[in-house]
Amino acid sequence: MNPDFQDFYEKVEVCKELKLNTILVPFIEINNLKSGHYYLTSLLTKLTTLKYIEFSGLPNMSNIIT
Questions:
Q1: Residue 46: inside a domain, yes or no?
Q2: Residue 1 confidence class, pLDDT cut points 50, 70, 90
Q3: Burial of 43 per CB tally in 10 Å (0-12, 13-18, 19+)
Q4: For position 51, what pLDDT does the model report?
Q5: Where are the beta strands (DSSP E) in the chain?
Q6: 54 by DSSP, 3-state: which?
Q7: Which of 2, 21, 26, 66 fits as disulfide partner to 51, beta carbons 3.0 to 4.6 Å?
Q8: How many CB atoms lie within 10 A of CB 54?
Q9: What is the Cα–Cα distance from 62 to 44, expressed in whole angstroms?
């Protein structure tokens, strides 16, 4: 919930160099940015070789069975 954006952007640059065509992206709400999903826009802008992308949300705590 407190993402390290510098680390994120460094990983995106590595993925860009590898010319990945498939990626799984955890979809989280970012509340400390004006545009809560700007990181997704940045990801899609830089990874131009993507053919398949899958988004997954975080599990809801109420759905966890103990």
A1: yes
A2: very low
A3: buried
A4: 92
A5: 22-27, 52-57
A6: strand
A7: 21
A8: 9
A9: 31
Give the integer Cα–Cα distance in Å for 66 and 64. 6
Q: Is 64 inside a domain boundary?
A: no
pLDDT value of residue 66: 43
Is 27 inside any structural domain?
yes
pLDDT at 17: 92
Residue 64 corresponds to which amino acid? I
Range of the domain at 27: 1-6+20-56
Distances (CA, A) of 43 to 9, 16, 37, 49, 59: 8, 9, 10, 11, 22
Domain membership flag for residue 50: yes
Residue 5 structure tokens: 């954006």
